[in-house]
Amino acid sequence: MAFRLRLFISSLNNREVKPMYMFKYVMKRLGLMLLSFSVIMLICFVLIKLLPIVVTVQAGEDAKIVYAQLEARGYIQNIRYDANGLVIGYDRVPILTQLFIYLKRIFVYGDFGIGVTMSEYRNQPVWDVFIEKLPPTILINIYSSLIGVPIGIGLGIFAALKKNKWQDQIISTAVILLISLPSIVLGLVIQYVFCYKLDWFPLTMLSGYDYFSWKMFRSMLPAVLSLCLGSIAGYTRFTRAELTEVLTGEFMLLARTKGLTRGQATFRHALRNAMVVIFPSILSEFISVLSGSLIIESMFSIPGVGRLYIMSINAQDYDFFMLLSGFYCLVGLAAGIVVDISYGFIDPRIRMGAK
Fold it and tell me: What is the mean pLDDT of the chain?
């Protein structure tokens, strides 16, 4: 009786310990994420501030007004003019002073800045432009995942079940080709074949904000296909490799001897164990697609944050660059935490944070 009581108490303690381990692990990872985020953003801030300021003005605009805006934002000081009123020089505000002003604007006033050097977005609040450009980027990445995940996992399962047969050879060859080609090359092929030769889709995305209409979705498809083809290859490779290894496990032989058919043993046991590796790869693949959309958005004229990011780098618009760098950095770091935590929920044998 005493032994059973001790065993019951021990089981209760183990149930309490695992959430405590997970809580400590999550808090530790969040702390490391914030530290990494702060260091990366500090490096980005210093590097962009070390570059010379590029001021572009359109016809009818006065460059003196642009420099005055830069001075008002705390970027430069002591602007010097020649006899004709043209700017001939200025002094840069120390980087630490600029950093203090930038952080004060964000945390005290909620001001992420305004566009200065990009004439298209000059004097527009950075945060408002970011929110306006976010839906197209999110949509093309969601569409690519909705298309890529089921097709990729399905092809991986089929290739694993047909291992070393001609079906597996064809799928493996296609996977190697798609993984070897960058998304920009796939985008050029899709533009030439499907948009130019076959005329199935428009070359660029339609303008407007009706993102859920059929015409808008059709104009997004070339960019979506350019992103999801590489994802399909990645999902297929992960699924085939993991499922092939699981299918050769001893527990699969035991499941078959108990009377389960091959299909039942595969979907009830093998696929469930293989998902421990496959599911986190889906999250990591989504992040890689989000990063790859930077170039694809420019190719297909997608009015998203990726295209805006490239423009801010070329124009060296500080506030746009910092906000968008923080967005992509935060998404990548948060995805790493989600992937790590997901292991503990998918596989009960894994105890995150346990010694």
Answer: 76
Query: Is residue 121 situated within a structural domain?
Result: no
Does 73 lie in the same domain as 181?
no
- Say yes or no: 64 and 189 in one domain: no
Displacement of CA 202 from its chain's centroid (Å): 26
Kindly give, in sequence order, each residue whose CB lies less than 8 Å from that of residue 245, ignoring residues fewer than 6 positions away.
Answer: none
Co-location of 36 and 180 in the same domain: no
The residue out of 111, 135, 153 marking a domain boundary is 111
What does the pLDDT look like over 34-88, one tens digit per residue? 898 889 989 988 888 887 776 666 655 666 777 777 777 777 777 777 776 667 7
Q: How far apart are CA 252 and CA 46, in angstroms?
A: 56
Per the structure, how many domains does the chain have?
A: 2
Q: Which domain holds residue 56?
A: 31-111
152 shares its domain with 186: yes
